[in-house]
Structure prediction request, 237 residues.
Amino acid sequence: MKSVYNILIFCLGLFAFTSCEYDNYDEPNAMFQGRIMYNNQPLNVANGQVNFELWEPGWQLKAPINVILAQEGTYSANLFNANYKLVFRPNQAPFRMKYNTATASDTILVNVNGNTNLDIEVEPYYIINNPQIAKNGDKINATLGLEQIITGVDAKNIERVSLYLNRTQFVDARPNYNLASSTIAGGDIANMGSISLNVDVPEDKIIRPQSFVYARIGVKLVGIEPLIYSPVQQLEL
Prediction:
């Protein structure tokens, strides 16, 4: 009986020692941050809907670190100092990575050594030019132009263009992130350089005394779930 007790004490001590070893791992202390850019302009997406993966070569877990984009196209993550491979999954964003000669692919190599800033240059399928959103009477009107950037075999068709309104600054196509919208189908767009949308101000959904709404335009591409957006605008009612 005494020997069983001694074995139990030994096992508990070994477990405690092992647990302390795991607890003594350093926390990540390097801030990796930046923006998703095209021609030195940030690209706007839905908050929390688009992400990229960081892979650390040689790490035994063999699992990526997912880094989420904010709606202004910014990102941040606490990491260990290390070399990483950065990738976006195909068709999981309204843009694609540029070809990288260093890796002979669309993967880019990132060295994180202390706080590291990196603006990632990508190629959007389309960009929204000159978005204008304004209130006129009981309607919100929007105009924009679309410019196709990626052509040829990799081109994507436009599924729809929409104007979204919300009570908060987080505005996008998801049901919980807009209280009113107006849409034109891609096949109904006669002139890509001049598109107009309008939506009634949803007075029944405005919680007074709030006297403003937030609005922005989104473009949905065929075969890609996340939209590309214009910047958020605040409109006085």
